[in-house]
Design brief:
Strand order of the largest sheet: 10-11-12-7-13-14
Shape: elongated
Distance between the termini: 43 Å
Low-confidence stretches: 1-13, 16-20, 71-75, 747-751, 816-820
CATH superfamily of the domain at 5-24 and 36-40 and 248-536: ABC transporter type 1, transmembrane domain
Largest sheet: 6 strands, mixed
Number of helices: 29
Mean pLDDT: 77
CATH architecture of the domain at 5-24 and 36-40 and 248-536: Up-down Bundle
CATH class of the domain at 5-24 and 36-40 and 248-536: Mainly Alpha
Radius of gyration: 38 Å
Number of strands: 14
Structural class: alpha/beta
Length: 820
């Protein structure tokens, strides 16, 4: 239970700002001053397009069974679709000759005839047009095909016209689905597959159109004929196979006829259910699968860029913040796609609904449009407020994740020093801040929903009142002629018209409110994606040059030539470093804390690039070497002995997964770890605890060194390698490392000599070095062997050795505090 007063930062009513810590209030105020508008939010959404391309365009499968890239790298592409106009023409002619789309029979048939003709002409034009003209013709073809199919379904009776239009539309689609080329005298065909978002949209619209059409006719059949004994419209009578029940052939339906229609109605509803039920079950699953594929692509891209960023970036950002962005913020891309699919579906459904409702009476259409206008105006007010509060909530969530990561990583230090209560209070503060920030977002979203419901309800009640009056007066509907052509009884306001219009009118309101809910959520999604794109937008400080080359075999020297480096422009770490290191040597880097030792060796692996000067290996500037190749040729054993919760074998061969047991034991022997490994319960197969918790500090240190040695790289960096070792083990390891550096473990071949960089404070370790470099305030102030540096009167290295000797003897050196 939270005992801290910060738990009262969130009162029952209001936002409780008086209890929020001052730094949190400042951050909230900074975020709320964000000036981004709707256009900026849309740009963020548009940036998700590269991660949608694989799900929209899919991939090509050739006739040889090889999958190819969606976008051809060849200009112009050898693949073409010149057969499509011939195919479209071939599919058009039989239908025209058979009279499926006759000319001059009615204006509806004439519309279909000219639509088919337009599709044929546009398909031919696509062969010759390029650039914007091609795009314009393609858009026209899509629009004409969509309208023609909808018109054939609703405005023309019979099934032949639908089949004809469907075949011609399929012929046009073939330009996108099937392409061919002739290569070496052989015909090759490729098929586009994997367009899952396209497939999903097709399923959505098939389901939607089936629902609209089925709803139109079932409501008419139920309310007019079954409930009121009214004759069927001619279309419905033919549709159910009982033309004798059409209006004009009979005055009223008797009980038996109504019961027969009732059975027909139930059969029709059950049949529609059998068709739509699989879609209703499969589509949510399909949607989740698509979203996870897209999310995976973004998450992999984010982690890949995170790995590419230099330590300069990582040193400025908390690990928990990066974890939150990679895991939580990146997931917003799936939410965005789901939102776009849902919004686009609802907007089109809303437009169709408004058109149908306006056909009954324009006043209803205007009322439906009024709800949308009010929603848009209201959205302009609440959108920036949701964005600002969402950004604060995400930042607070990232802080909480960072706190959890830090506490779990430092649990040993916390328990050893009895700091549990303090860390609990710090966690409570971050937890309450995150909870408070999240509540501020959700409370605003709730208020938005309540206000939208209130505005829509007032308009809906007015519209329902008008519809009831019109139905009681049997008033003629606005588009009675068009409605009659479709085959419905809604030529006058009746019970069926009232029931259907009421349902659709309320549906239009729900669609507007649904879009507003999605748009409200979109503000939060945009802030999450924006944090993701912040990382993706960062250009790595360290990256390969366009003409980078693999690192050649190391044979001569490593040279630091007037190297300077600073993490911040006003805080230099290294100044004018000049250094030459030869293979077969151990080079100790010594100096007080903060003198730049770790930074110096970090430059060697291009964890950073120097701000001035250059570093070269055998005359090759590191910036001209392939980064991956360079780092493969450099092994590092860090001061922090990071081990993983897996077997000893897998820990040692972590960077060389293919290493065999012989290589592992050879590395372990040099690191003086072979004896205790054999003494473990399962030897190399012994599974370690998290961070190697089952081992002592010295054992973990030797395993880290073995992991660096098994790589067998020509350059080795050891950061305090003997800090946790006893004197005897230290002596053995240094002797073996010295022989390893000279290549004596492999018959003393010159090509096997390695250069070792050694960061240490232990005198017994330093004395065995071939070259000692003493750093002070970012400069190499002394260099030489141990004996040479001890000869320098008042030398810094000599003073360092004397102080260490006095400390070991139990004598506190004068000025030791100042020196540290």
């Amino acid at each position: 239970m939270i005992q801290d007063s910060r738990a009262r930062a969130l009162p029952i009513w209001g936002e409780g700002k008086s209890q929020i810590p001052e730094q949190e209030l400042l951050r909230q105020q900074a975020a709320e001053s964000d000036a981004r508008g709707i256009g900026d939010v849309l740009k963020i959404f548009i940036r998700t397009w590269p991660y949608l391309i694989p799900m929209v365009l899919g991939y090509w499968r050739t006739s040889s069974g090889v999958a190819g890239d969606t976008v051809s790298t060849q200009t112009p592409s050898p693949w073409n679709y010149n057969y499509v106009p011939f195919l479209v023409t071939a599919l058009t002619l039989p239908g025209l000759m058979a009279g499926w789309v006759p000319l001059s029979l009615s204006w509806q048939h004439d519309m279909l005839f000219w639509a088919v003709a337009a599709m044929v002409v546009l398909s031919w034009s696509l062969i010759f047009l390029r650039g914007r003209s091609f795009l314009t013709a393609l858009i026209l073809l899509v629009v004409v095909a969509a309208v023609a199919n909808l018109f054939a379904m609703l405005a023309v009776t019979g099934w032949r016209d639908n089949l004809h239009i469907g075949l011609v539309t399929f012929g046009c689609l073939c330009m996108w689905l099937f392409q061919y080329q002739v290569s070496d005298g052989r015909l090759q065909v490729r098929v586009r597959l994997g367009c899952h978002l396209v497939y999903y949209y097709i399923l959505v619209w098939v389901s939607t159109m089936m629902g609209v059409v089925a709803g139109l006719f079932t409501v008419d059949l139920l309310n007019q004929s079954i409930l009121q004994a009214q004759p069927l419209t001619p279309f419905l009578a033919n549709f159910v196979g009982q033309p004798e029940l059409a209006a004009g052939s009979i005055e009223l339906l008797d009980l038996v006829q109504r019961q027969d229609l009732q059975r027909t109605y139930i059969t029709f509803v059950v049949a529609i259910g059998f068709i739509t039920f699989p879609l209703a079950v499969a589509m949510p699953y399909y949607n989740v699968w698509i979203m996870q594929q897209i999310n995976q692509s973004l998450r992999l891209a984010l982690v890949e860029r995170w790995h590419q960023l230099s330590l300069r970036y990582h040193s400025k950002h908390r690990v928990g913040d990066s974890v939150y962005r990679i895991y939580q913020d990146s997931a917003q891309v799936t939410a965005v796609i789901s939102m776009l699919i849902s919004v686009s579906t609802q907007v089109v459904q809303y437009a169709i609904t408004i058109v149908f409702v306006a056909a009954l009476d324009p006043i209803l259409g205007m009322l439906g449009v009024t709800i949308a206008i009010l929603a848009i105006g209201y959205a302009s007010w609440f959108s920036p407020r949701v964005r600002s509060r969402s950004l604060v909530a995400r930042q607070a969530g990232a802080d909480l994740t960072s706190r959890i990561q830090e506490v779990l990583g430092a649990v040993q230090v916390i328990k050893a020093n009895g700091m549990e209560a303090r860390e609990q209070r710090r966690f409570e503060q971050d937890s309450v801040n995150a909870f408070n920030a999240a509540f501020r977002v959700r409370s605003l979203v709730a208020v938005v929903g309540i206000i939208m419901f209130t505005m829509a309800a007032a308009i809906l009640l007015g519209g329902e009142f008008l519809m009831a009056i019109w139905a009681s007066d049997n008033r003629e509907t606005f588009a009675a002629i068009l409605i009659g052509l479709v085959g419905l009884s809604f030529v006058r306001w009746n019970l069926a018209a009232f029931q259907w219009a009421q349902t659709e009118f309320f549906k239009s309101s729900n669609q507007v409110r649904g879009v507003m809910r999605q748009w409200t959520s979109a503000q939060d999604m945009a802030m999450g994606l924006d944090r993701v794109f912040e990382i993706l937008d960062i250009e790595p400080d360290v990256k390969n040059a366009p003409d980078a080359i693999p690192m050649p075999a190391f044979s001569r020297d490593v040279v630091f030539d007037h190297v300077g480096f600073a993490y911040e422009s006003d805080r230099a770490i290294l100044y004018d470093i000049n250094l030459v290191v030869h293979p077969g040597t151990i080079n100790a880097i010594v100096g007080p804390t903060g003198s730049g030792k770790s930074t110096l060796v970090g430059l060697l692996t291009r964890l950073y690039d120097p701000d001035s000067g250059s570093i070269s290996i055998d005359g090759n500037d590191l910036r001209q070497l392939d980064v991956e190749s360079l780092r493969w040729n450099v092994s590092i054993a860090l001061q922090e002995n990071v081990l993983f919760a897996m077997s000893v074998r897998d820990n040692i061969r972590y960077v060389v997964p293919e290493a065999d047991d012989a290589a592992i034991y050879r590395a372990a022997e040099i690191a003086c770890a072979d004896e205790y490994i054999r003494g473990l319960p399962d030897g190399l197969d012994t599974v370690l605890g998290d961070r190697g918790g089952k081992l002592s500090t010295g054992q973990r240190q030797r395993l880290s060194i073995a992991r660096a040695l098994v790589k067998d790289a020509p350059i080795l960096i050891l950061d305090e390698p003997t800090a946790a070792l006893d004197a005897n083990t230290e002596h053995q390891m240094l002797s073996r490392l010295s022989a390893w550096s000279r290549g004596e473990d492999r018959d003393n071949e010159a090509s096997n000599k390695r250069a070792i960089f050694l960061i240490t404070h232990r005198i017994s370790t330093i004395q065995r070095a071939d070259q000692i470099l003493y750093l002070d305030q970012g400069r190499i102030v002394e260099r030489g062997t141990h004996s040479e540096l001890m000869q320098i009167p008042d030398g810094l290295y000599r003073r360092f050795v004397e102080m260490e000797a006095m400390l070991q003897a139990g004598v506190r050196p004068v000025g030791a505090d100042d020196r540290e």
